[in-house]
Amino acid sequence: MNIDRISPTQRPKGRPVQYQKWQTLLFLHWRVPVSMLRTLIPQSLEIDTFEGSAFVGLVPFTMRGVRPVWTPSVPGISNFHETNVRTYVHFQGRDPGVWFFSLDAASRLAVWLARTFWRLPYHFSRMALSHQKDHRVRYEMERSYPGPIPAIANFHYRPTGTPSAAIPGSLEHFLAERYVLYTESAPNELLLGRVHHTPYPLQTAELFEWDETLLSAAGIERPEQTPLAHFASGVDVEVFPLQRLSAVSPPAGQSLHVR
């Protein structure tokens, strides 16, 4: 299937509702069979693949300057660490985006707001990030609530290579350049959200130590191989309002649409 992967990277029309800065992003990915994920994804979404394979991603990073467009950021509230577990989907051959199995944040307020207003499966976790010698980074997290627990993620890594934007059509572009998210407001009621930012300054990363149980907590059997690892220093992000997909089972010959 020939999917347009460039249009979603362009800035949406309208006004954003929130500003964020995503920093110190580590992208970890495992290649998995589509069949492993199919029962975990709403039937109205198709699992997006690269050369026939699906991917599961785990992305720890830091959120800064999180705020509605009409207010300044607030120290102690607007900055926190986050980790998400995800895969990639599309809707009827368009809008390739992200499906989150879980998102963990080190902010109780952010967890409540995201679960309440963004319908996303957030959890509160204790997290720590430290920058060490030789550009090494250590990231640690442990989920507190809600379950399933235990759920932990610990990574010690170092960015390598030269930062650059991913080339359209490459695996790196498929994995990192995602500007659409899907979530459910209720069973069989899908929502679509969009974000916009400049392309990630992407580079490879070297893993020294890693351990995680977030995938198993999400019901995913993690492959044995070491994950693909990429790093991005950060981007400034505009967040746009959620849109509701009008239906998930349209009459024959009709297409779903966003309203």
- The sequence of SSEs as H and E is EHEEEEHEEEHEEEHEE
Specify the biggest β-sheet.
13 strands, mixed
Structure class: mainly beta
Q: Uncertain segments of ≥5 residues (pLDDT<50)?
A: 247-255
The overall strand count is: 13
* Overall 3D shape: globular
What value does the average pLDDT take?
Answer: 92
In angstroms, what is the radius of gyration?
18 Å
Number of domains: 1
Overview of the molecule:
The protein is mainly beta. The protein has one domain (about 5-245): Acetoacetate decarboxylase-like (Beta Barrel), CATH 2.40.400. The protein is built from 4 helices and 13 strands. It has helices spanning about 35, 110-115, 170-175, 215, and strands spanning about 20-30, 45, 55-70, 80-90, 95-105, 120-130, 135-145, 150-160, 180-185, 190-195, 200-210, 230-240, 245. Strands 1, 2, 3, 4, 5, 6, 7, 8, 9, 10, 11, 12 and 13 form a 13-stranded mixed beta sheet that branches. A hairpin with a 2-residue loop joins β9 and β10. It starts with 17 loop residues before the first strand and ends in a 15-residue tail after the last strand.
